[in-house]
Amino acid sequence: MKALLLAGGKGTRLYPLTHSIPKPMVPVLNKPLLERTINYIKGYGIDEIVMSLCYQPEQIMNYFKDGSRFGVKIYYCIEESPLGTGGAIKNAERYLDDTFLIFNSDIITDINLRDLIDYHMASGARVTIALTRVDNPSAYGLVETDNDGRITAFKEKPRPEEITTNFINAGIYVFERDVLDFIPAGREVSVEKEVYPGLLSAGVKMYAYKNNNYWIDIGTPHKYLELHNSILDGLFTYPFIEMDYKNRIVIGKNSYISPTAKLIPPIAIGDNCYIGNDVIIGPRAVIGNNIEIGPGSYIRNSIIWEGCKIGSGSKLSNTIIGINCTIGDNKDVSYGVIAY
């Protein structure tokens, strides 16, 4: 079985962090989100990956190349202009055969993919959509089912009075290849708004796989911070996450920590970092690779991406700092997003 990763989005809700980096490459505990996703999928024995790319595809292709470094084989499909979720699936048709998995590349979850695939096979569905429960489904697309799990209706971003279920589309699907015949080629198509309602009208058998596993869409800075807090606090143990849940402090290779610095768990510090005298880091802080933090600075509830320099005496709280940024001396930043 192959997995198709929909990784072409610009990440406008994460802007300006995604000004110079594709959304699927944003770091999750100092490794790209896509790398985390590939390791997760590979853990279920799926080692052929099709990537659908559009925004800054070179960054992704240069990082993953043919996939051999990650134990998978990767095929690339490049969109010259955005084709939407349905158009991206159709554009990858030449690489897809039999049953295949589709995965939105802006989510993190621990849904059991083997159970999902087995459920799809047992139901005889042509499409199976993984559903997840949320407190407020009004910002998502909710999916209604009958008692057997067969999908009966879709509602995109419903008004409060239209909410009939708290289960939403989780952005993970299992398709049979013949479903591709229902998707028009050569134009932008939404799988959620156009393809799925069309399949439903045509009587195509579609089932929902309901689960209560961890799931998060990291499309906003708030959700991005929430994900890292969940990992650091041990609320979500993602496969291959390099978190020491006993000591709750991770320090990468060749990083120097001043003897007078104070580390308050849970925190993660990347490779080749320099943490100066009297620096306080934590709780809930992720420091990327190749970071320099000047004397007397205080970092908490924040994420700093690789290559940044933080001056002396600065304070960062509930803040995300993008790649290769410099924060001067004695700066105080709270609830901020800095990318330049």
Automatic annotation (TrEMBL):
InterPro entries: GMPPB_C, Mannose-1P_guanyltransferase, NTP_transferase_dom, Nucleotide-diphossugar_trans. The keyword Signal does not apply. Residues 2-232 form the Nucleotidyl transferase domain. It comes from the Bacteria. Residues 264-334 form the Mannose-1-phosphate guanyltransferase C-terminal domain. GO terms for molecular function: transferase activity. SUPFAM superfamilies: Nucleotide-diphospho-sugar transferases. CDD domains: NTP_transferase. Keywords: Transferase. The keyword NAD does not apply. Belongs to the transferase hexapeptide repeat family. This is NDP-sugar synthase.
